[in-house]
Amino acid sequence: MPRASSRARASTRCDRASGTSRRRRLQRARARRRDVPGATETRDDDDDDDDDDARRPCVVYDVSRALTAYDDVWAWQRGFVHAALRQSTDRWRDVAILCAHPPTVTLGAGSVEAHVKFNLDAPPDGFEVRRCERGGEATYHGPGQLVLYPILNLGADGRARDLRAYTSALEEVALRAMIELGCDASKCHRIDGLTGAWCDGHKLAAVGVRARRWITYHGVALNVCPDLSHFAVVVPCGIDDRPVGSVAQILRGEEGVVSSAFAARVPETRAPMSTRERDELTRRAADAVIRAFADVFHVDVDRRSRAPTPREIDALDLA
């Protein structure tokens, strides 16, 4: 696949990685995870000026500074997919959406009611429930979690028509973002037989995808600083014996939560994060996720801090 792109882009484009300390963290992470299936090599920016024109363009709609209803983002994704399926060429730009949702439980194609801890006809106050076409089990989305929804053409030249490899690549995006945010690279990992990205045995990111004629939608959710007690409403991804965690929880040295033992959750040993601290960590996480996405998928990101317009969705008119 093509490698990296030029750093000389318009100010609206993704802020490229800079700073020796961040590069060194990523270099250490690569060295420790070279034996991880699906991992791809990241090169320093100074090595990639000769491949500037090879990256595929990608528009990222970053609406993560506010909460966006799941139904709205779901409709945007399906609209982009339908528009892509109507194209007579694969030269349209890739698209991704980065967002945060109000409290929402989504039920994937593999979900079973036993993994939902409430009456589906009477969800907890403030929670929405949606059945969707993605793969996987029940998942919680909510404030403090970032969700990346790429709409990519896996049938385009140079890409593998392989959903397992695609899922692994999304996990790699989460792992790189976690490491950039300060999680110990030696403790960031995958678990054989389970999807997602983990740190020190805690699941920090969940992946669930769908594709139509190799056009992807749905994606990866990274727990940055959510209220972990909200995960009590489901058995996250059908895994009831491993803790759910977040970047904030890992950085603060706190305990995660296990679905079957929420009632006995270890209380916070430090003062809760302030709103300002949460906002700052979430902003840094959004930057880290987009940088990792650009690196792993070898795309040239045009970052737009707004929702897509109807014309952009219906006609893939992204100029």
Automatic annotation (TrEMBL):
Q: What domain of life does the UniProt record list for this protein's source?
A: Eukaryota
Which stretches are tagged as biased composition: Acidic residues?
43-52
Extract the CDD domains matched here: LipB (cd16444)
- Record keywords: Acyltransferase, Ligase, Transferase
Q: Which terms in the Gene Ontology molecular function aspect does this entry carry? A: ligase activity; lipoyl(octanoyl) transferase activity
**EC assignment:** 2.3.1.181
Q: Which InterPro entries is this protein grouped with?
A: aa-tRNA-synth_II/BPL/LPL, BPL_LPL_catalytic, Octanoyltransferase, Octanoyltransferase_CS
What are the start and end residues of every segment in region (Disordered)? Answer: 1-55
**Comp. bias intervals (Basic residues):** 21-33
Q: Give the record's GO biological process terms.
A: protein lipoylation
Pathway entry: Protein modification; protein lipoylation via endogenous pathway; protein N(6)-(lipoyl)lysine from octanoyl-[acyl-carrier-protein]: step 1/2
Q: State the Gene3D superfamilies in the record.
A: Bira Bifunctional Protein, Domain 2
Residue ranges, compositional bias (Low complexity):
1-11
Pfam families attached to this UniProt entry: LplA-B_cat
Annotated BPL/LPL catalytic domain residues: 90-301
Q: Which HAMAP family match?
A: LipB (MF_00013)
- Family the UniProt entry places it in: Belongs to the LipB family.
Tell me the protein's name.
lipoyl(octanoyl) transferase
Q: Which organism is it from?
A: Ostreococcus tauri
Q: What is the lineage of its organism?
A: Eukaryota, Viridiplantae, Chlorophyta, Mamiellophyceae, Mamiellales
